[in-house]
Amino acid sequence: MVLQAIKYTRGSLQILDQLKLPHAEVYDDIRTSTDAWHAIKEMRTRGAPAIAIVAALALAVELENIATKGELSQFGEEVKVFIEEKLEYLVTSRPTAVNLADAARKLKKAVEEAAKDDSVSGEAVKEAYIKAAEKMLVDDVQDNEAIGKHGAEWVVKNTEVGKSGQVSMLTHCNTGSLATAGYGTALGVIRSLHSNGSLKHAFCTETRPYNQGSRLTAFELVHDNIPATLVTDSMAAALLRLKGPSERIAAIVVGADRVAANGDTANKIGTYSLAIAAKHHGVKFLVAAPRTTIDLDTQSGEGIVIEERPGKEVTMIKGPRHDGASLDLQNVETVSIAANGIGVWNPAFDVTPAELIDGIITEVGVVEKGSDGGFNLQRLFDDTP
Ligand code: MRU
């Protein structure tokens, strides 16, 4: 069975509630852009590409349902303005991942194009929007499969492959089917290595404070029968010292929320520490992301806004009650794991400087640093209209 975080058909959108995973698989209906805004803010859906696609499709569903009820304006210009306002609102849900802003920009462009002619109907503008939003869902899966293929080839070619012809990999956060329209970016590279017979073992970090690694990536790895081990974030550097046949890490591969023009990369908090540890141990450090995550308008990591989340995500933890023998899935509890009254800093992301990154894996290939020591990311877009 394929893991699906986003279920979409014309007029209907459901998201897998990622706050309930891995213990319960519950889908929530998303009928409007307001529903999507809240689902993104609360992180019931998360991951840079998934956020963008859920937002885009939520508005597609809202428009379709307005039209079905006979409430869509007959004037193209009015529908265009409605769409623009909703997109601007959706972009405010989470600030760091650029994919949502990129999707909004492209969708506005598609709508502008459709509404060029003054006599265009509201229905035609709505159709142009829905077609563009639906294309994003399809394109993301294809892009991820290409990222997986390019990344797996690069790893096999550029790292120390064991006698078995296989490599072990470490990843952080969740970048798989749950974070995208399907397959995943960094986890897509691990999936691709596995399906080629080139993966010895995958390690995933717990990813505090929200535990995307232990709850979501571990869930995906178990689901796909990929040989894998969970470590806490604080164990990663110690793991990189190990030289056993399964434990020798060939490369760390992570996703991204925003890659600046110079290659500085914002990703889940903890990524920066992993990159420093990788450099110290001579382990390759790779970022896997579609071009929709690359923000050429932001020159460096200095310009990336880092979202800060509520302190209770650090001081509290949620899960089903465990009586020592089994889980009681009917009884989900939130418990405190910190001293009452302590101050908390909870940035959701950090920025890894480009100098610590060996390659950026995209759907059109892997970019390495040039002779000037920098990434030339512009060339990834040179053929794009
Ligand atoms: O806060 P999250 O769970 O949305 O953060 C997710 C990440 O940092 C991912 O690594 C990134 O979005 C890439 S997902 C393909």
Automatic annotation (TrEMBL):
<keyword id="KW-0963">Cytoplasm</keyword>
<feature type="active site" description="Proton donor">
    <location>
        <position position="257"/>
    </location>
</feature>
<comment type="function">
    <text>Catalyzes the interconversion of methylthioribose-1-phosphate (MTR-1-P) into methylthioribulose-1-phosphate (MTRu-1-P).</text>
</comment>
<dbReference type="InterPro" id="IPR000649">
    <property type="entry name" value="IF-2B-related"/>
</dbReference>
<dbReference type="InterPro" id="IPR005251">
    <property type="entry name" value="IF-M1Pi"/>
</dbReference>
<dbReference type="InterPro" id="IPR037171">
    <property type="entry name" value="NagB/RpiA_transferase-like"/>
</dbReference>
<dbReference type="GO" id="GO:0046523">
    <property type="term" value="F:S-methyl-5-thioribose-1-phosphate isomerase activity"/>
</dbReference>
<keyword id="KW-0028">Amino-acid biosynthesis</keyword>
<dbReference type="GO" id="GO:0019509">
    <property type="term" value="P:L-methionine salvage from methylthioadenosine"/>
</dbReference>
<keyword id="KW-0413">Isomerase</keyword>
<dbReference type="InterPro" id="IPR042529">
    <property type="entry name" value="IF_2B-like_C"/>
</dbReference>
<dbReference type="InterPro" id="IPR027363">
    <property type="entry name" value="M1Pi_N"/>
</dbReference>
<protein>
    <recommendedName>
        <fullName>Methylthioribose-1-phosphate isomerase</fullName>
        <ecNumber>5.3.1.23</ecNumber>
    </recommendedName>
</protein>
<feature type="site" description="Transition state stabilizer">
    <location>
        <position position="173"/>
    </location>
</feature>
<dbReference type="GO" id="GO:0005634">
    <property type="term" value="C:nucleus"/>
</dbReference>
<dbReference type="Pfam" id="PF01008">
    <property type="entry name" value="IF-2B"/>
</dbReference>
<dbReference type="InterPro" id="IPR011559">
    <property type="entry name" value="Initiation_fac_2B_a/b/d"/>
</dbReference>
<keyword id="KW-0539">Nucleus</keyword>
<dbReference type="GO" id="GO:0005737">
    <property type="term" value="C:cytoplasm"/>
</dbReference>
<comment type="pathway">
    <text>Amino-acid biosynthesis; L-methionine biosynthesis via salvage pathway; L-methionine from S-methyl-5-thio-alpha-D-ribose 1-phosphate: step 1/6.</text>
</comment>
<comment type="similarity">
    <text>Belongs to the eIF-2B alpha/beta/delta subunits family. MtnA subfamily.</text>
</comment>
<keyword id="KW-0486">Methionine biosynthesis</keyword>
